[in-house]
Amino acid sequence: MRAVLVAVQVQRVDDAAFAASLAELHRLARTLGLVPAATITQRRTSFHPGTVIGSGKLKELQALTGMAVHDEAQEVAGAPSDGKPIKVVLVDHDISPSQARNLEKATGAEVMDRTAVILEIFRRHARSRVAKAQVEIVRLQYMAPRMRETGAGKDRQRGGIGGKGAGESGLELDRRKLRDRIAELTGELESLATEQATQRARRRDMNRVALVGYTNAGKSTLMRALTGSEVYVADKLFATLDTTVRTLLPESHPRILVSDTVGFIDKLPHGLVASFKSTLDEALEAGLLAHVVDASDPGFERQLEVTHEVLADIGAGSIPRLIIFNKMDRIGDSASEAAAAEGLLARFPDAFVMSARRPEDVAKLRERLIAFFVRDLVAGELRVPYDRQHLRGEIFACCEVLGERYQPDAVIFDVRAHPAVLERLRAA
Ligand SMILES: Nc1nc2c(ncn2[C@@H]2O[C@H](COP(=O)(O)OP(=O)(O)OP(=O)(O)O)[C@@H](O)[C@H]2O)c(=O)[nH]1
Ligand SMILES: [Mg+2]
Questions:
Q1: How far is ligand 2, taken at its centre, from the CA of residue 188, in Å?
Q2: pLDDT digits (tens, 9 = 90+) for 293-322
Q3: Does pLDDT of 164 surpass 70?
């Protein structure tokens, strides 16, 4: 299905940021399976309160959606060459319910703002119960002010993008039912969160690195390369919504757990971050955040900034961070790649520059991750009586074991481990 993209450049937004945001809307549209067939842009001091764009541009849009009222509008540049109207309009901003209604009336098309587009992608990509519930809560909250006493159901029967599947029945519910459903889902999430927290508590003392970063940066690709897991990789935005935790392979001493999680995006819909809080807790408890950046994306600096902001928002601002510039193989020939790498390292001296497609780079990254966790290890002895040998597995998982000495009543392990881990194992 084809879509028209609409974006307004208001005064405070510079050209580069405007272009990057529009390019991103293209990719969001494609992730939904839509074909961006035309783009309408306008510079304004502020958004038009009624219809986002001004009346001249609205006529252009109407020509594209087959709602042109005046003859001259048919001659507007960018009108569909095959004459078939475009039935979806994507607006690169958050618009008010009344603006959406006005635009729908004027264009006869389904109108989705940036938040609606992102929420629909999340709805389609959610797999686990947790992810599904998290997304549905935010979708219902988004829908509540947009519900009308009459007509909402009828509108959707046109067979739009956002109306199919799980959310459909929600549209027929009145606001009170909608609130009940939100409460029910919140309760469900709370019990699931307790389960997740128990699992995480078991991993508390383990060395953990969380892959975080902008959507499509290559987190899941790195997860596969580092852990041999089969997590989903795709050239789509928000391919991953669930957190996966696996052991770094080949296994290191001490063992390191790697987690892959949901990516971030500029102008992340309000509520989504809060709703994904329990999913992101995995990152919050990591000893190291591996912040993956797509160095081949012209907009990577903004993406870096957005990730910093979201991490600060979720309370992960003070966790040690390793910036990983990925996709270096896409920069160009080896000379331009080397120059780009040099430029990046001059600005980010502690960063790691790589391509997830090159096994030798992945091996070096693995060493770098191990080095981080080995750095704070201290040498010590653990005395384990023979009746407490069940601790053996845990000792090997959490410590680097340098040797074992057998004494009449106990085994003495010579280890290197985090001071906190030593303390815990001694008390166990
Ligand atoms: N050329 C190249 N492509 C890469 C590299 N790393 C990842 N990709 C591709 O980039 C796309 C996105 O990769 P993913 O690993 O799914 O990205 P992600 O960060 O997990 O994205 P989300 O889960 O959507 O947040 C896929 O098509 C990958 O094959 C790389 O180093 N070089
Ligand atoms: Mg992913």
A1: 25
A2: 999 999 999 999 999 999 998 889 999 999
A3: no
Return the pLDDT at 162.
58
Output the CA 141–ligand 2 centroid distance in Å: 26
Q: What pLDDT is stored for residue 69 in this prediction? A: 62
Res. 161 pLDDT band, cuts 50 70 90 = low
224 CB within 6 A, ligand 1: no
318, HSE (Cβ side, Cα atoms, 13 Å): 1
Which of 31, 215, 233, 353 for a ligand 1 pocket mutation test, highest count of atoms within 8 Å of Cβ? 233
Starting at the earlier edge strand, list the strands of the sheet with 378-385: 378-385, 410-417, 400-406
How many angstroms separate the alpha carbon of residue 233 from the centre of ligand 1? Answer: 6
234 CB less than 6 Å from ligand 1?
yes
Average pLDDT over residues 56-71: 87
pLDDT on residue 80: 53
CB 227 within 8 A of CB 275: no
Q: Which ligand is nearest to the CA of 239?
A: 1
Q: State yes or no: cis peptide before 80, omega within 30 of 0.
A: no
**Across residues 150-172, what is the average pLDDT?**
48
Q: Take residue 414 and report the two structure tokens written for it.
A: 């010579």
Q: Name every residue whose Cβ is closer than 8 Å to that of residue 105 and which is 6 or more positions away in sequence.
A: none
Q: What is the mean pLDDT of residues 389-410?
A: 90
Nearest CA to ligand 1 atom 14: 218
In the sheet that holds 352-353, the strands lie side by side as 244-247, 256-260, 207-213, 288-294, 321-326, 352-353
Q: 223 CA distance to ligand 1 centroid (A)? A: 10
* CB-ligand 1 contact for 139 (6 Å cutoff): no
Q: How far is the CA of 160 from the centre of ligand 1 (A)?
A: 29
Looking from the CA of 122 toward its CB, the CA atoms found within 13 Å total 32
Question: In b/e form, how buried is each residue of 368-381, taking b as 16+ CB within 10 angstroms?
Answer: ebbebbeeebeebe
Measured distance CA(239)–CA(215) in Å, rounded:
8
